[in-house]
Amino acid sequence: NYLRHVESMSQLPSGAGKISQLNAVVLGESLASEDNDLIFPSKEFSGQALISSPQQYMEMHKRSMDDPAGFWSDIASEFYWKQKWGDQVFSENLDVRKGPISIEWFKGGITNICYNCLDKNVEAGLGDKTAIYWEGNELGVDASLTYSELLQQVCQLANYLKDNGVKKGDAVVIYLPMLMELPIAMLACARIGAVHSVVFAGFSADSLAQRIIDCKPKVILTCNAVKRGPKTINLKAIVDAALDQSSKDGVSVGICLTYDNSLATTRENTKWLNGRDVWWQDVISQYPTSCEVEWVDAEDPLFLLYTSGSTGKPKGVLHTTGGYMIYTATTFKYAFDYKSTDVYWCTADCGWITGHSYVTYGPMLNGATVVVFEGAPNYPDSGRCWDIVDKYKVSIFYTAPTLVRSLMRDDDMYVTRHSRKSLRVLGSVGEPINPSAWRWFFNVVGDSRCPISDTWWQTETGGFMITPLPGAWPQKPGSATFPFFGVQPVIVDEKGIEIEGECSGYLCVKGSWPGAFRTLFGDHERYETTYFKPFAGYYFSGDGCSRDKDGYYWLTGRVDDVINVSGHRIGTAEVESALVLHPQCAEAAVVGIEHEVKGQGIYAFVTLLEGVPYSEELRKSLVLMVRNQIGAFAAPDRIHWAPGLPKTRSGKIMRRILRKIASRQLEELGDISTLADPSVVDQLIALADV
Ligand code: ATP
Ligand code: MG
């Protein structure tokens, strides 16, 4: 359907509009009157874009669907393969009724992703190009590495690991903050065929131990401490506790290679276990700066990454080498309209999938210059991001809605006092971005000039699945627009029947794509049960989604967040976006509660702007906002004031906890230790009857 729509849309003028306060785009004609929310890329932008029109997208998408093998092998041929893959580019079974789920891409092809990220670029003459600009926590503390220097450092660590018995297929746990050593560690593992498992360095000793016990690494890489904002975090102490715990469970890790981060602490202040603990700087420099590559099969494992755990026990998502390589490189290139002159900054930590695919692998496979930021985005003040953008002339800035919303709460002056002229593309990931946050990001941060790539994807998908191509599509604030090449999203109903056209339901994917995860580590059955059994024949994302009359996809949040009020299915994201539109509302989180009449009622946690007092009047006007925006059926039954919301360390709202608070099941809050700030839970409980 969207293809048909595109044909009519492409008749429209592609001159961009600076969107006014009212967000009306002056489009002339047809669509403008129906839908004043379309925002076109400017002529200049489209003119220089890799994909510059809906037609061009359509042609490529059609080819990727009609001939996936040809489409992806053409792209794969641009990378280095020691030996080409076999006759079959891919094979798949995504239907549990036909046997075990299996996905393979480029099987028999022999390659190495580290080689493609580094050696290949150096050989192509990019040796002196900056690979990483590293910005420390404190103003004025920075460093950088060229592609040649990065390669040398990666080789030294790779040689150390090899020398200490790490072989192809062995697991290595990495528990590091955003120092350059983090991407270096990932690449060094990949170089020798070891399987890295990065654990976000904000996780507790318990969570780290759980992951160590699951994947049994030979070595753990960490540092003694790190400064984040005004706080110092003693990572080594957390690692010590985790290693104690895991050895009690029979998993002992032989080596703890510890980077001495003298900006945060001293060696004297670091507890040490002789025999196990080794200072990084003491050993690495003794190793040669070149290291032969371990050539691996495209289907050999590259890494394990445990999902953030906003729901249930963490799952070890396993990605393999070849397909992941091609997919992250290609999605990065097109979704951000990457050019070799770009300076790219993704604010995600390498502890999350975003940091794997779009701090490290995707950008480096393209030979990009990447900014790696150690600190907190609001330290020393809310202008830090734009300070960094100006300092490094960042042209592509990729972040999360939670950061956008938190910066929006502060004065625009923090943004506007910086030039930001270098910016050309913005990106968002992690949650649906509320249209009002989208507009602020677009209008204020991007000066109404930079398209926003709102990329929908998951740890499991390896790379972008539904995403704008910034030069091709007119955008709608809050919609992730259309599927990437090779991706066939489908929306199904409760029975698993595909629904066509304008609709809403469960978001699934038909057919495989190169970046798909191949299993859950050590638990293929859970892989099948969680993702392929709910709707036989499809990969089930766990997310709710709707498709509008123009074929645009709108993510509505996790399916377990969809609320059924008197038979109306309402996505939490919709109600939250309506609340956030209120001028005094900074953030909102909505959950369902039992309701005698309606089945489920809507319970909204609302964070107000700094300094706004709670009042009944305000409560009423918030409810009115939702009534006006969505309809009376979606009006919240209860507004609960929330000075802060319980969030995971990746910034996502943990609704599991909010549901318990809303239904006053306070004894059943479960594990709250993985929250970024567990104290918000007490604050919320205290305000339950206000
Ligand atoms: P867990 O699976 O452990 O509960 P998680 O799903 O939050 O954690 P990720 O894989 O990092 O872990 O996040 C993927 C999820 O984030 C998606 O399923 C979706 O719910 C949400 N998401 C990511 N990007 C977007 C986006 N652009 N728009 C809407 N939702 C998004
Ligand atoms: Mg998930």
Automatic annotation (TrEMBL):
The keyword ATP-binding applies. It comes from the Eukaryota. Residues 57-117 form the Acetyl-coenzyme A synthetase N-terminal domain. One of its GO terms (biological process) is acetyl-CoA biosynthetic process from acetate. Its EC number is 6.2.1.1. It catalyses: acetate + ATP + CoA = acetyl-CoA + AMP + diphosphate. Coiled coil: none annotated. GO terms for molecular function: acetate-CoA ligase activity; AMP binding; ATP binding. InterPro entries: Ac_CoA_lig (IPR011904), ACAS_N (IPR032387), AMP-bd_C (IPR025110), AMP-binding_CS (IPR020845), AMP-dep_synth/lig_dom (IPR000873). Keywords: ATP-binding, Ligase, Nucleotide-binding. Residues 574-652 form the AMP-binding enzyme C-terminal domain. The keyword Ligase applies. Pfam families: ACAS_N, AMP-binding, AMP-binding_C. Residues 126-512 form the AMP-dependent synthetase/ligase domain. Belongs to the ATP-dependent AMP-binding enzyme family. PANTHER family: ACETYL-COENZYME A SYNTHETASE (PTHR24095), ACETYL-COENZYME A SYNTHETASE 1 (PTHR24095:SF14). This is Acetyl-coenzyme A synthetase. It comes from Arabidopsis suecica.
